[in-house]
Design a protein that fits this description.
298 residues, 3% strand, two-stranded antiparallel ribbon
Length: 298
């Protein structure tokens, strides 16, 4: 009873999450986003965050069941799997997770776990613009980056260079550091400078995107950075809250994945999942691998 009720409660909350998310997707789908809707979008995404935190607590309720309690009826669940929660999969894809990133096992896409109708629905959802896609396009339309007589990006690049030069100079002039330590710290500054080149060189950035290290376009990355730097300006306060809420949602999703993986480890050890996945090792691997808004974290 506890197992069933907890999962049914999850599905009800997933339904509410999708309701909130669909309304935000609708408002962001226009060519321009009405500024009057920004506060509504942020409020609805913050509600999603509140629901996500509740879902983490529901996992803890399920943990009040002992491993032996669960193992008494676990075999009756086969071949049921968490992959069959189409609402959770929709949530992931509507946020921006790509279908090829989601596997039930190393060789098997999760849609193979679904009935034909549900699989078709998942493929349709995956072809629609996600929140990541729409936010990226919204960021690319951000003004202020280039105005007559001032190019933000040139000023920012110079500011970064000046700061790194100061850091290197302070290391050189530090009387208490041995030469080996000075060189090690300057090497770290050089690595940081090299990583910043992706912000200033479109070809470097595009290579990182192609290799899977970045996802946002360079223009969108510039806009996100601009919003973070000037977050206290009244016109940018809501955009900054929006980007922060996207990070919160992603973090909450990773917290849920982590809590779920730990619970599975506690309940079944290293046994395979009822749906045929690798169980705990697979779930643990998804915590970092399936982060959607990693560019904003970085």
């Amino acid at each position: 009873m506890l197992f069933i009720v907890t999962h049914q409660a999850h599905e009800l909350w997933f339904k509410q999450i999708l309701h909130e998310l669909d309304s935000v997707l609708h408002m962001f789908s226009d060519t321009t986003v009405d500024e009057r809707n920004m506060g509504v979008c942020v409020a609805r995404l913050e509600r999603v965050c509140a629901i996500q935190k509740l879902l983490v607590e529901q996992v803890r309720v399920l943990e009040s069941m002992t491993a032996l309690d669960f193992l008494e009826f676990r075999d009756l669940l086969v071949p049921a799997s968490g992959f069959q929660s189409t609402q959770f999969r929709k949530f992931e894809m509507k946020l921006g997770l790509k279908m090829p990133e989601r596997f039930a096992s190393p060789q098997s896409p999760f849609v193979t776990c679904l009935h034909a109708r549900d699989a078709m629905e998942m493929r349709a959802t995956s072809s629609e613009p996600s929140l990541f896609d729409l936010v990226e396009k919204w960021l690319e339309r951000t003004p202020f980056l280039d105005v007559e007589g001032y190019t933000f990006w040139k000023s920012y690049r110079q500011a970064v260079k000046d700061r790194m030069d100061r850091d290197a100079s302070s290391i050189d002039n530090h009387p208490g550091l041995p030469e080996a330590e000075k060189q090690a710290r300057k090497d770290e500054i050089s690595k940081t400078a090299k990583s910043f080149e992706a912000l200033f060189d479109e070809s470097v950035h595009d290579n990182l995107v192609e290799e899977g290290h970045r996802r946002l376009s360079l223009r969108a990355t510039h806009a996100a950075l601009f919003i973070h730097l000037y977050r206290d300006e009244p016109i940018l306060q809501l955009p900054f809250r929006l980007l922060g809420t996207l990070v919160d949602m992603d973090e909450n999703l990773q917290n849920w994945r982590s809590q779920h993986a730990l619970m599975v480890h506690r309940m079944i050890g290293v046994k395979v999942g009822t749906g045929g996945s690798l169980g705990y090792p697979y779930l643990k691997s998804t915590v970092e691998r399936l982060k959607i808004f990693a560019d904003f974290f970085n």
